Amino acid sequence: MAKTITKRSWAEPYRMKMVELLKVTTKPQRMKAMRDAGYNTFLLHAEDVYIDLLTDSGTNAMSDQQWAAFMTGDEAYAGSKSYYNMEKAIQKYYGYRYVIPTHQGRGAEHILSQILIKKGDYIPGNMYFTTTRLHQEMAGGTFVDIIVDEAHDPNSEFPFKGNVDMNKLEALVKKVGAEKIPYVCIATNVNMAGGQPISIKNLRELREFTQKHGIRIIHDMTRVAENAFFIQQRESGYEKAKIADIVKEICSLTDGATMSSKKDALVNIGGFLAINDWEIYEEARNLVVAYEGLHTYGGIAGRDMEAIAVGIKESLSDSHQKARVGQVEYLGEKMLEYGIPLVKPFGGHGIFVDAKAFLPHLSQDEFPAQTLAAEIYIDSGVRTMERGIVSAGRNSKGENYHPNLELVRFTIPRRVYTQAHMDVVAESAAMVYERRNKIKGLKMVYEPKFLRFFQARFDKLK
Fold this sequence. Notes:
Layout: H1 27-36, E1 51-52, H2 64-70, H3 81-93, E2 98-102, H4 105-116, E3 122-125, H5 130-138, E4 142-145, H6 166-176, E5 183-187, H7 200-213, E6 216-220, H8 224-234, H9 243-252, E7 256-260, E8 271-275, H10 278-291, H11 302-315, H12 318-337, E9 350-354, H13 355-358, H14 368-380, E10 382-383, E11 385-387, H15 389-392, E12 407-411, H16 419-434, E13 442-446, E14 457-460
Parallel strand pairs: 1-10, 3-4, 5-6, 6-7
Antiparallel strand pairs: 2-8, 7-8, 9-12, 11-12, 13-14
């Protein structure tokens, strides 16, 4: 009997013009490479990696239109036309008034923190991000997590785990006073929660509250288009809305933004600070010269600014986001078939494996997520990264943070890998899962002062 089609397949809205050959290593080679890297996937040599899911930051495949724009880059030190092209795209598609270019997102975070945060301030946000919190702390502020409780539960199916818990925010304002809160930091598609979105409804409630108390909202918008896709798919009233229109609405509910263009905007380097307040813009324009470069290039080459302008437009395509998030969902479904414990619902930029549930015999101080990332690489050459106790770092007293979420992030670069690559990844995770009870944890043998997950080194526990 002929099979009846119940669900139509989708395909990527692009075809390939060029391929990059990959190096395939043996297991003994990978074991040596992992030991040499101190069991930290960040310290592996990229040439020894088969499928690289470490990050989606700057690892995307640019389109032919972006490469063509590269050739029109204006490398003038001052007044580059490429800057003005990028500025126009940001103003058109995101709606912010003033634009300060930076070499990447953390450059924008640093400048913003130096301008807005005073010693003793509190910065509430919908879960921390590593570099964001560090810049806030270095400026004298204290981060306060105001995300909904569901975000800390990997098994919760709540569709908008990026939402702000308004009761938590109100309690903070009552405790410290609105004058001690320079802004609320809102990430779209919250990375550390597993790529989880915030709803328009919640953003509107937040906007109303902050306007009442005279508090700004600053938007970490690095994956805003992916967040808009989830709003389109999950939020009532937005089923027929275009992603471009949803993105514009999200931005309109905030006062400014930091952006790493290396994600949504589909480029290899670059970012910006966008703001609606002239006085903040003027101060940022002064600081960028000291830290990044002139205010019309800010550490980015003209060709990269041209590619950002094109990439912003491409990122807002409904078909692009359907394929981008669809590939993440494909990997997640494959992993679930093998019984692998995952953060649910699936995020926008990657699949997050629950390392606590994967390796329940390891305590958090034995670094289960770091251990699992190392084991995945040794098995197949697939590089992932830890998002747990190592990434969380230490508090001001030098004590380890112990986050509820202990995750391994399988981050999928945009327009880079095929579904066959995803099959290899899922099968590797399944192979490691089959021998999970025999896996031993790690001990940290070197810890840098800041952002330790980048450079820390580990050794196997006996």
